Amino acid sequence: MKTIEELLNTQEGSMNTEETSTAHEEQPIIAEKKEIAQQIEEYSSNQVIELLKQSLNIHWQQTTSLTAQAIHLERWGYKKLAANIKADAEEEHEHSAINIERLEFFDVDYQPLTVNPPSWTRHDMVAMINYNLNSVKEAAKIERATITAAREVGDEMTANIMIPLLNGSENGIRLYEGYLKLIEQMGIDNFLTLQV
Ligand SMILES: [Fe+2]
Fold first, then answer.
1. What separation in Å is there between the alpha carbon of 24 and the centre of ligand 1?
2. Is residue 73 exposed (0-12), middle (13-18) or buried (19+ Cβ within 10 Å)?
3. 11 and 86 assigned to the same domain
4. Are both 90 and 116 inside the same structural domain?
5. d(C-alpha 172, C-alpha 153), whole Å
6. Ligand 1 centroid to 32 CA: how many Å?
7. pLDDT tens string 149-183
8. For residue range 80-139, what is the model confidence (pLDDT) as tens digits?
9. 97 and 118 together in one domain
10. Residues 37, 89: one domain?
């Protein structure tokens, strides 16, 4: 039978072992963190990561606003316009997934996301189109900056991934500028008659 002193020693010993093992457990976490930092440094830069987050954010915003606009336009009978806006919403949703996939590759968190409320008034089609135009212009600006920043650090893959996204934004600029031009030429009533 062990004495009380022996028992206490054993307990103390096991506590020490626990402490030691906790200290050992912490080490791989630190190493892991270092590895992530190195991975980003090796592959890309923090600026690229920040721009990818901004691109993701604007795509989430486009996905929510365009989805809502398509439903609104469909309800009010502008089926052709609704179909184009819905297709755009789906494309922007795909673009947001591409952004997330790249951020996942770098093992970085992409929260928090901020989605601004719509800035147009209900039924104001011109304001809605202007909002969409400004949004794709902003997205194109971020995408161009991401491509430049990625190429600066030799991250050719991120640059390549961003090219179809920039292409999509430029298509959006063409689409919404075209709508505004038509409205200017034929008036909003005639334009909307064509969208039924
Ligand atoms: Fe996009």
1. 46
2. buried
3. no
4. yes
5. 29
6. 33
7. 999 999 999 999 999 999 999 999 999 999 999 99
8. 999 999 999 999 999 999 999 999 999 988 876 777 777 888 889 999 999 999 999 999
9. yes
10. no
How far apart CA 36 and CA 49 sit, in angstroms, is 13
Contact 52, 158 (CB under 8 A): yes
Please compute the mean of the pLDDT values over residues 67-77 and round it to a whole number.
95
Q: How far is the CA of 117 from the centre of ligand 1 (A)?
A: 19
Domain extent, residue 99, equals 46-194
What CATH number is associated with residue 139?
A: 1.20.1260.10
Q: How many domains does the chain have?
A: 2
Whether residue 16 is found in the same domain as residue 91? no
Taking the C-alpha atoms of residue 6 and residue 133, their distance in angstroms, rounded to an integer, is 79
CA of 6 to the centre of ligand 1 (A): 70
Distance 7 CA to ligand 1 centre (A): 68
Q: If you ran DSSP here, which 8-state letter would residue 99 be given? A: H
Do 30 and 82 sit in the same domain of this protein?
no
Distance 147 CA to ligand 1 centre (A): 14
